[in-house]
Amino acid sequence: MALSGIQIYKMLPQTNCKDCGFPTCLAFAMKLAAKQVELEDCPHVSEESKKELAESAAPPIRLVELKAGQHEVRAGNEVVLFRHEKTFYNKPGVFVRVRDTDGATAIADKVEAAASYAVDYVGMELRLDGIAIEASSRDPETFSAAAAAVREVTGLPVILVADDPEVLGAALPALDGEKPLILSADSDNWEGMAELATQHGAAMGVRGSTLDELAELTEKIKEKGVEDMVLYPAADNMSRSLILHTQIRRLALKNFRSLGYPTIAFAGNGNDPGKTSVRAAQAISKYAGFVVVDSFAPELVYPLLVLRENIYTDPQKPIQVQPALYEINNPKPTDPVLVTTNFSITYFSVANEVEGSGLPAWLLVSDAEGMSVLTAWAAGKFDAERIAKGVQQFGVAEKVDRKVIVLPGHVAVLSGELEEELPQWEVMVGPREAVDLPAYMKSVLA
Amino acid sequence: MPVEIPKDKWAGAVKTVTLGATADDGGTRASKVVIGGEQTLPFMHFESPSLHRPVIGLEIRSSRPDDWSPLLLETWRDVIDDPAAWAHACEEAGADFIELMFLLKDGDGNPVSPDFAVTVVKSVLEATGLPLIVLGPGQAEVDNEILVPVAEATKGERVVLGLCEDKNYRTIVAAAMANGHLVLGRTPMDVNLAKQLNILITDMGLPLDRIVMDPTTGALGYGIEYGYSVMERLRLAALQGDAMTQLPLLVHPGFEAWKAKESKVGEGVPEAWGDWAKRAVHWETLTATALIEAGADAVVLRHPESLRRVRNVIDELMTLPEPA
Ligand code: B12
Ligand code: SF4
């Protein structure tokens, strides 16, 4: 938590020497608390105070970054418990797990499928973040071979999962120059794990089934000089997992430093996609910084990645596209003009349908302040006047000869007013849902 | 290192609401559903163990819906033209309650009449022992015309009648009051609009423990984040002591998720969307799971496999911690 002016004052030299440009140390302390000056402006602070002040200014949840080549996955730095209070910042990294006992071919196939997976969602390309490799064999050679097999296929960041530092260490050479997450340290093996983390510059996962255990471990590990830690609250059901992740987030936000780290969740142990999906969904909406899924399947991964986008959307800013006249399938002056709003979900529902139909059209995206058709209509942000303004602003009349403009079916009520605003145009009412547009364009507009 | 775990202490609690009446309470239901009663945020059992688990309803229509996904039409193929048989199949599938929504037309294409509505509702009540929600087609005139006789014909069953919206609630609330029923109030994703509607309804004299609120939600990928946050905010307001938000929340992840192209359409979609049938069930299940964790007391679904999965989620989430 940020320190008050008085608390800061107690750490200053209290000589009122004015070198900082303020009449008293207290005045400077107040400005510092309000973040209006920098600590460096006082040349006389002790090293000890500097350290203490820097620590108090650190974010309540440490930012941990995994790196491999140009890939980066970030977790932490969150500031709220509920997304409506501000927003959630760092989308949890979704990792797919392989076991070193799966065999080189199976590993390569699964990793290849996961690493090359990409799906479009409202104009964004969604992808998975990395691979978790588990040492089910408990054998150093098998584990290092698995890590090498993964690196043959992909350069994505890696999480190494093993209990025995000796086994875990065997896989690290395959990840030279990277920052993986090594998992997991517990009360038995933490010293060996901490050594590996220090040597390799890895982030370190800390496992415990209670907060007491976790906090004790992070304290001890921190003393060994490891800063980048990730908490792995071990739980055998969704209830326990939800409670632990929530308690950790709450305590961290209250500046309880020993739990001020991002968390990781393993979504199911086995290949039941029905269970994996809901556990991963819980982890995404309730506070995990990293999520590991066992099964890779497009129909499982796609909804999870979409959920992550939705939950991490900034509530103050609906995802929008630029208002403009968009050209779909190279329209000619004789092709129709379709009207919609600039809410991303709305725009892409329509644009994808038209594009998929292969039929050319002009898509006039009206500035509706990022709202859906009906929301914008109800809020007075999508009306005849605004549509006519778009027609003028984007020079639509100069680009088309056949003056046909099509309204979304949900706002059929606008057609009268739009005819008045655009007397040269024929105003038509399209279907309500974008899915029905291709059929409508073929039968009515052709 | 002993960690002191902070516990939230709230001034307010959610009202307990009972759907359906058994013989003891003057109805004919074999089971009733009790929801609400929360004294803290969802599933924070260490602060106050939840008394009532979230419940799952399945949605049926008065006649074959023409805009449902082919996957659903196939799933309910044998019963979809017969609401009573459909309701029975939903009970077999493990639903806690049934939501029957009337379409504007009956199976023969005639506008729904009060007689038709009463006959359908009675047949459904006979075919299942579960509590029932009855919704009109969503046009004020038709809703009122059919819900009043339905309310009278089912007096004492504690049926939930809906939808009450700010534009149309008086007739439905009066019918519920006169016949011992409940109402479902719907508002478009806004805390203040939800409160306002509850004020209007209680002003007419219907007690708070006979109102369930539907704050509206969106499907995964289609605005779920708005519904999710409005539910979290409504629940926080209730716990902070705002009486007009202290009602159980019911949402329709089934309706929303099956409207999405991801669930509705199997062909001509990106390969990265994967297997259609599996994707559709994930879509509905994940929408429901996220909303239950945001505070839903009741969810209405459409597919039996989603029901099974969401039931497992609820079972897990209701696992109480071992006594320390
Ligand atoms: C999410 C949502 C919100 C979000 C806003 C999201 C956003 N960025 O727009 C929030 C919570 C902010 C909101 C606010 C309000 N909302 Co609102 N909201 C919704 C909700 C649940 C979903 C809307 C949505 O995203 N749909 C998905 C998009 C993709 O749909 P779409 O834009 O219509 O596009 C489809 C079609 O129209 C078609 N299409 C689109 N363009 C074109 C073009 C052509 C040519 C064709 C043929 C087809 C076509 O294709 C698309 C896919 O099929 C709806 C209810 C519902 N479930 O539909 C209510 C709804 C739209 N809201 C409503 C209302 C009243 C409001 C408010 C006025 C109330 C309030 N809360 O104060 C405010 C207004 C906003 C303001 N003043 O700030 C009402 C509108 C009622 C009406 N008929 O007028 C609705 C219908 C809810 C209801 N049943 O009462 N809302
Ligand atoms: S420079 Fe430092 S010691 Fe001098 S008055 Fe400012 S704060 Fe105090």
What can you tell me about this protein's structure?
The complex is a heterodimer of chains A (about 450) and B (about 325). Chain A is α/β, with parallel strands linked by helices and about 450 residues long. In chain A, about 40% of the residues lie in helices and about 20% in strands. In chain A, strands 10-9-8-7-6-3-12-11 form an eight-stranded parallel β-sheet. Chain A is flat, with a radius of gyration of 28 Å. The N and C termini of chain A lie far apart (about 65 Å). With about 325 residues, chain B is an alpha/beta fold. In chain B, about 40% of the residues lie in helices and about 15% in strands. In chain B, helix 2 packs parallel to helix 3 (about 115-125) and helix 4 (about 140-155) runs parallel beside helix 5. The chains are: A alpha/beta (about 450), B alpha/beta (about 325). At the A-B interface, strand 4, helix 8, helix 9, helix 10 and helix 11 of A face helix 7, helix 9, helix 10 and helix 11 of B. Iron/sulfur cluster binds near residues 19 and 44 of chain A. Cobalamin (B12) sits at the interface of chains A and B.
Which helices and strands occur, and which strands form pairs?
The complex is a heterodimer of chains A (446) and B (324).
Chain A: H1 5-9, H2 25-33, H3 47-57, E1 64-68, E2 71-75, E3 93-99, H4 104-116, E4 118-121, E5 124-127, E6 130-134, H5 140-153, E7 158-161, H6 165-171, E8 181-185, H7 190-200, E9 203-208, H8 211-223, E10 229-233, H9 238-253, E11 264-267, H10 273-285, E12 290-293, H11 298-311, E13 324-328, E14 337-341, H12 344-357, E15 361-366, H13 373-378, H14 384-393, H15 396-399, E16 404-407, H16 415-421, E17 426-429, H17 437-445
Parallel strand pairs in A: 3-6, 3-12, 6-7, 7-8, 8-9, 9-10, 11-12, 14-15, 14-16, 16-17
Antiparallel strand pairs in A: 1-2, 4-5, 13-15
Chain B: E1 16-19, E2 33-36, E3 55-61, H1 70-75, H2 83-93, E4 97-101, H3 114-127, E5 132-135, H4 140-153, E6 160-164, H5 170-179, E7 182-186, H6 191-203, E8 211-214, H7 224-239, E9 250-251, H8 253-257, H9 261-264, H10 276-293, E10 298-301, H11 304-317
Parallel strand pairs in B: 3-4, 3-10, 4-5, 5-6, 6-7, 7-8, 9-10
Antiparallel strand pairs in B: 1-2
Helix pairs in contact in B: 2-3, 3-4, 4-5, 10-11
The complex binds cobalamin (B12) and iron/sulfur cluster.
